[in-house]
Amino acid sequence: MIGYLKTFRISREDVSELRFLLHGPVGAGKSSIINTVKSIFEGHQFINCLAAAEVTKSFTVKFKKFSLRNVPFAMYDGMGLEDGDTKGVHAEDIINALKGHIADNYAFNPASAIDNTSKYYIHNPTLNDRMHCLVSVIPTDRISLMNDDTIQKMKVIRAAATKLEIPQVLFMTRVDQGCKLTQNDLGKIYQSKKIRDKVMECSNKLGVPVSCIFPVKNYSEENKSDEKLDCLMLEAFSQIVHSANDYLAGLNEEHDME
Ligand SMILES: Nc1nc2c(ncn2[C@@H]2O[C@H](COP(=O)(O)OP(=O)(O)O)[C@@H](O)[C@H]2O)c(=O)[nH]1
Ligand SMILES: [Mg+2]
User: Which candidate, 142, 211, 141, places its Cα nearest to that of 170?
Assistant: First the structure.
């Protein structure tokens, strides 16, 4: 699977990389997904430098791009969504990012969405500025505890992506924390009733079809590579690559200029 992704070609010549936007609550595992995918593709040992040690406040403040060496994929980590309108990133800014209005390294302002006079505001985004897939990130062990505000924000963002016809998937992280069977043997994940129930719960709460939900485990404490973990993540990652690529292939010229 990784061999296939390593020689992957984008369906359109005018698009230089597939861009994925990660969003979700603080502590969901967004930075860890980026870390994990990077260590799989780049073949180095996992180093936990992006993940926050404590999960009470958002660690990511900038709109930061993470490219993968030698493959045309880039992941964007937004600031975590927190409760209320003034903490964490504005749903509106995630939507601006989807549309390609926000330049790399923009520092999210928890108090307000980006101003169109900001030098980080892109007025006429091209397909290369836009996001090609939205990845919602939810932690398995905290789905039940997620508050309505956060869920509501995520729904607003997803609805905007639907309107823009941008494909969306959901990565359900921390599967090891949600199920003992899976914690002991990741290969048992598809036999786990607990995980199946969590997928259902996720689907119901956020209105995401079960077929678009991918349970994954990130590298966290482990520092040696784990083949089962890599496989599960690569399966989920392949899905976003295909969705993004199909999305681009389906666009016609007038869409580009929209
Ligand atoms: N056990 C376990 N811990 C994880 C997993 N994914 C993330 N974590 C941990 O959860 C915490 C929050 O992750 P982080 O990536 O910082 O979340 P972010 O706020 O969404 O960027 C960190 O302590 C991570 O090490 C996972 O799949 N399994
Ligand atoms: Mg983070």
Answer: 211
10 Å Cβ neighbour count for 125?
Answer: 19
Strand order in the sheet with 213-215: 64-67, 73-77, 18-23, 133-139, 168-173, 213-215
C-alpha radius of gyration, the chain, whole number:
17
The residue to mutate among 32, 58, 94, 146, having the most atoms of ligand 1 within 8 angstroms of its beta carbon, is 32
Domain ranges of the chain: 2-6+19-142+154-165+186-209+224-245
Q: Determine the distance separating the centroid of ligand 1 and the alpha carbon of 28, expressed in angstroms.
A: 6
How confident is the model over 159-208, as pLDDT tens digits?
999 999 999 999 999 999 999 999 999 999 999 999 999 999 999 999 99
Which CATH number applies to 2-6+19-142+154-165+186-209+224-245?
Answer: 3.40.50
